[in-house]
Amino acid sequence: MKLTLGYSPCPNDTFIFDALVNKKIDTEGLEFDVVLEDVETLNKWAYEGKLDVTKLSFPAFFQNPNKYVLLNSGAALGNGVGPLLISKSEIQIPKSKIQNSTIALPGENTTANFLFSFAYPEAKNKIFVRFDKIEDAVLSGEAALGVIIHENRFTYRQKGLHKVTDLGEYWEEKMKLPVPLGGIAIKRSIDRLLGLKVEKLIKRSLGFAFGHYPLISDYVKQHAQEMSDEVMRQHIELYVTDFSLDLGERGKKAIETLYQSASVHIPVSSIQSSSRLFLS
Length: 280
Hints:
Elements: E1 2-7, H1 11-21, E2 31-36, H2 39-46, E3 53-57, H3 58-62, E4 68-70, E5 76-78, E6 84-87, H4 95-99, E7 103-105, H5 111-119, E8 126-128, H6 134-140, E9 145-148, H7 152-155, E10 162-166, H8 167-175, E11 179-187, H9 192-212, H10 218-222, H11 229-239, H12 242-245, H13 248-265
Parallel strand pairs: 1-2, 1-3, 7-8, 7-9
Antiparallel strand pairs: 3-11, 4-11, 5-11, 6-9, 6-10
């Protein structure tokens, strides 16, 4: 049986799925038609139910729970993993100025956008650009401030940019929980037992990757946009955590808390019970 599967070309996702999609493990008869796209593209496709299994930012999932349910493996969730608000200025920027500035964000449906709104609910002057264009938007003056994710967390200083706020740290201080960034979701219309098999295979694939780390496979390097091995490892070590293997009760609580908070800040679809967020 073949399922469509979408995730980003970032090292954390390719690290997780390499063994699965390249059959380095026994896939128990399952095959995957793989699409690699920026997460905001995947978020938008979720509204169409385009893919059987997909990486999603949590706010995008919250708006499509009638179409998808979360798997227990493959998530990006942890401590110290949140997006950063950056500027060209080293001088501390007052909150009142931030609220009136133009902010570049990596997508309307991203967790980065939600966490920025969580910290700065009055800021409305947003522009949405691809995550890898945000530093340039700030440097060029197109935006006064930007919210960066992924590998840009490790490289922004090299471009002369400066951190204003760690938005993940702000969430952790307020909620006393890890930051949920994105998860792997499967269509609700797919048989639950098949979903559990996919969940198990993702966990097995990640176990294979951990077992060979710090080796970085050719598959990860191929899609890493000329990152150095050091930056790839920083990326993997930050975003691939024990929660990626298994959300556990604390991971699920963090996602449920994000859902409850998101329902205040953004329009989300109705879910009868928080337990219906998860396949298992």
